Amino acid sequence: MSVVKESEGIKEYIKKTPKSKEFSEKSSLIMPGGVTANIKFFEPYPIVMEKGKGAYLFDLDGNEYVDYMLSYGALKLGHGHPKVLQAVQNQLQDEGTMLFGTPHKLEVEMGTKVMELYPSMERIRYTNSGTEATLLAIRLAYGYTGKYKIAKFEGHYHGGYDQVLQSVNPKVNDAGPANNPIGISESRGVDPYIAEQTIILPFNNLEATIEILTKWKDELAGVILEPIQGGFIPADQDFMDGLRKVTEELGILLIFDEVKTGFRISMGGAQQIYGIKPDITALGKVVGGGFPFGIVGGKKEVMDISAPSAFSDVFDSSQSKHSNAQDVLFHSGTYNGHPTILAAGLETIAVLETEIASVFENTEKLKKGIVELFASKSIRAQTIGIGSIFNVVITDLDEVKNYRDLQQSNFALRKEIDYHLLVEGIYMKPLNRYSLSTVHGETEINRTLEAYETVLNKLF
Ligand SMILES: N[C@H](C=O)CCC(=O)O
């Protein structure tokens, strides 16, 4: 397999995006690195977008791109879907406010819908992001079990806080044996004490996972995982069944982080596909209809420990004689259950209920086309994923099952292809996963495959 030595792709990218370059120089004087979320950065500077419409993004230089990032998968109806725009407008006009600061009807409407699609969620709470959702899920596990360690899998991402910002993308040489990985913090400023409370597990390795969970069972409150790693590497069914069984046996809560997979790989997420009921689920991205949103749901007895009606809480100055703040699990937020966001989310779900199948069909066409184009150049590549997310993995392995397998793939070639694709008008942050929307149709798929063909012909 040939590896491209010098990046022609980056050179062409720079030629095509002079205004983004100029903008990034200025924005670096305002925001560290020129970005307000590290994930938005890539070398030598990210493309600065100015408009979005349907499946397309338009940058400062007037270049048009078919967008496969879709804001890290959040926009499952594409950019500016008219029905979502209308729902947002209607909510603001009809209800006359952006925020009630009280319970309101859309909270229950959304909850009813989500609980119907995710039967494991017997009670739910709203948050303002997927990160906040996993944070609450972990606190619930601590509060319910009275244990204060959490286990996560190597290579899985659950948000940017200390407990889970561990071994997301570690250097394999530093990360210990594959069947007993050690925790590596992924940021400066992570409190080493908190990092030590996180136990790292090997994905899709049931035997080793059971051994580690058994060792820590008395201290572990929960196991959190992306049932589909990074949104694209699926757990084996046996692994998932075994994990559910052992967590039940050991009194450890099973937490599904379905922020990426919820409403993307099926309406009912990975849990629907695997037929597994986790104890707690975190949702985000798609269900916010493009706005910041998260949902945590789970077993009634677990969720109900946050009910202020049962106990007292930090905001209750009367502090009942019979209980104190520690008896209730604190969860609050001024913007939780934001009506405009709920309106956008509900409309998104309604559209997906009729259109999700076509997104899956189109995703399959694109995946197949990409693999065929690689094969025509005798390059071994796979398009790994379920539903409307996948990743292009250039590898000699027959199967990619976890983080360590993924690290053996040819990232250098994939990256070079991605820069050339950007030049050809396909928007994909280099090395990231593909997400499709209801508005990615035949035109966009054909255009993408033509771009791939052009790039592969150029490189090989
Ligand atoms: N919220 C994350 C970054 O800030 C998104 C991670 C991902 O979707 O890959």
TrEMBL record:
Keywords: Aminotransferase, Pyridoxal phosphate, Transferase. InterPro entries: Aminotrans_3 (IPR005814), Aminotrans_3_PPA_site (IPR049704), PyrdxlP-dep_Trfase (IPR015424), PyrdxlP-dep_Trfase_major (IPR015421), PyrdxlP-dep_Trfase_small (IPR015422). Its cofactor is pyridoxal 5'-phosphate. One of its GO terms (molecular function) is transaminase activity. SUPFAM superfamilies: PLP-dependent transferases. Gene3D superfamilies: Aspartate Aminotransferase, domain 1 (3.90.1150.10), Type I PLP-dependent aspartate aminotransferase-like (Major domain) (3.40.640.10). Belongs to the class-III pyridoxal-phosphate-dependent aminotransferase family. This is Aspartate aminotransferase family protein. It comes from Sporosarcina siberiensis.
